[in-house]
Design a protein that fits this description.
Layout (H helix, E strand, L loop, with lengths): L2 H18 L3 E7 L6 H7 L7 E7 L5 E5 L15 E5 L2 H8 L4 E5 L7 H7 L4 E4 L1 H9 L3 H24 L6 H14 L9 E4 L2 E4 L9 E2 L1 E2 L1 E3 L5 E3 L4 E2 L3 H20 L6 H14 L3 E2 L4 E3 L6 E5 L12 E4 L2 E3 L6 E3 L2 E6 L2 E4 L16
């Protein structure tokens, strides 16, 4: 990570701090898959176990804070933050450090440890800072985009490995294993969260999950640079209902190319890409899309009533989850998109179609 990129990240967060009149920002991270990335974004540290915080003051150097029992559950030397604190109760330390200060918190609802909140909240004015933090990091630098593209390359290689291994009657774990091998060998480490859909519901790819003649994988990984991406396609023989859904997917894909442009709102993009589904009477069972970066799901999401404006070099995961009236037939295919001056660019380069079992890459 270049020093220029590190300073850029701090500058963007501090600009958001100024708007909210904050004295500090506290960024929370957890080992739970997809929730560790904010700490990595501000420190370079990858959480292997438990949790950690980064405390960024409006002026001065940041501190990375660990519970004392986490001293040997990560490579602390990989962090560019020199001030590393190990304490029995991080909440008490935060209360002592930031007494009577106004502290914006990223992750207060979903990530911050309850014991630390209880120890600190009576002495600190905590302010929710999730949206502001995500918007500050939503526009990717060229250095970040290089990491994003590398993650997309790895994810796409994993899809081809999954496709090569797939066959009706095989166990989901058996089919996913070659893809996971690709991911681990490419340096993803623990940053993979891959599933299959059973009916319209997401399930872990276990040995007791047997795949039929139509398969929907959900492949989500972060490469060595730590940027999450999502790329996958359905495989096999669709029935008539799913073939009709595919028509709406093809319309979404073209609409996203025009809709994911600077100045458009997330609401406008949602309306454009979901039109083909709603016109056919389908309901969507998952968010249409969302900003994605070093945390798996970031703001803004692509959805109804989200008025955040898109900017050039934002990155979005798009994956309309369309479900039939019977609650079983569905279609779910993922792409990672870049917002450019000319519109949306799907980074994987995969055609929008359902792939055949046994198909090889061109």
């Amino acid at each position: 990570m270049s020093r220029e990129e590190i300073e850029r990240r701090y500058r963007l967060v501090r600009e958001a701090m100024e708007e909210q009149q904050l004295d500090f920002v506290l960024v929370c991270g957890s080992e739970y898959t997809g929730f560790e990335g904010a700490v990595t974004y501000l420190s370079g540290f990858v959480i292997v176990h438990r949790y950690a915080y980064v405390l960024l003051p409006r002026e001065g150097d940041p501190t990375i804070v660990f519970p004392a029992e986490a001293r040997y559950v990560g490579q602390h030397g990989t962090s560019w933050i020199e001030d590393q604190v190990f304490v029995e109760r991080p909440g008490k330390w935060l209360g002592d450090r930031c007494t009577a200060q106004r502290v914006g918190v990223y992750g207060m609802d979903y990530v911050m440890a309850v014991r630390d909140f209880e120890a600190a909240h009576l002495r600190i004015e905590f302010v929710p800072f999730d949206v502001e933090f995500d918007l500050a990091r939503a526009v990717k630098s060229e250095e970040e985009l290089s990491s994003v593209r590398d993650s997309v390359r790895i994810n796409t290689e994993g899809f081809w490995a999954f496709l090569e291994a797939y066959g009706p009657g095989k166990a989901a774990g058996e089919v996913l294993a070659p893809a996971e091998r690709v991911f681990v060998e490419a340096g993803c480490g623990r940053l993979t969260m891959n599933m299959v859909l059973v009916g319209s519901e997401f399930a872990m790819a276990r040995e007791d999950t047997v795949l039929g003649d139509f398969c929907i994988p959900s492949l989500e990984i972060a490469g060595p640079g730590g940027h999450w991406v999502e790329v996958s396609r359905a495989i096999g023989d669709p029935n008539a209902e799913v073939s009709r859904m595919l028509e709406a997917y093809e319309e979404y894909f073209e609409a996203a190319k025009g809709g994911l442009r600077p100045g458009a709102t997330a609401h406008e993009v949602h309306r454009a890409v979901s039109k083909g589904f709603s016109d056919r009477g389908y309901r969507l069972g998952h968010v249409t899309g969302h900003s994605i970066g070093m945390t798996m799901i970031e703001h803004p999401k692509i959805g109804e009533g989200i008025e955040a404006e898109l900017r050039e070099n934002m990155v979005f995961s798009m994956h309309p989850h369309v479900i039939a009236e019977n609650g079983e037939d569905c279609l779910y295919m993922q792409d990672t998109w870049l917002v450019t001056a000319d519109g949306g660019e799907p980074l994987a380069g995969l055609p929008m179609r359902i792939f055949r079992a046994g198909e090889t890459r061109p």
